[in-house]
Amino acid sequence: MSKQSVQSLLLWTHRWFGIIAGFYFMLIGITGSYVVYSATFENWLNPGIRVAQNPGAAYDIAKVVTAAQEGLGVEVLPNRFNVSRDPADNITLNYNVAKPDEKPSTRIAFVDPADSRYKGSQDPQETVRGYLFKFHQELFLPGPIGKPVVAIGGCFFLTLLFSCWPLCFIARIA
Fold first, then answer.
1. Which residue, 149, 133, 106, is CA-closest to 42?
2. Lateral strand order in the sheet of 106-112
3. Which of 9, 21, 107, 136 is surrounded by the fewest CB atoms within 10 Å?
């Protein structure tokens, strides 16, 4: 094989793997960035249930939990209780709303901290964050297939990143 054909092959391979890897990393980067800053975006998208009416007022935790339980129609305690640093945000409580025989199912309840009023709930999988997180983690493939594909793809593209430049360098001096 001549030097020119080796260079052409390496250039072609590098270009197309680079385009595929760039597209993959662009999608993973965009979805990952959204997941990191999702609280802000979700507040913009759903202010009715996420933003408090009287920010900064004192609240009673027992009343907040009771309001969420009544709003969701459950008697269990929350799995998670989140109070945001931003006083304008509602308190969020995560509940497993599944019956004893069912697969776990999470609902996020939103309660205004000032007056302990239940504002609504969301299934975390049905939010923009949940949708993009599923893509970011599984590429919309079933879990047993998607997660290994993402992991192998990340390892492959990381290897590609650190191995292409020496190959191009070797092709230039060969």
1. 133
2. 80-82, 91-96, 106-112, 117-122
3. 9
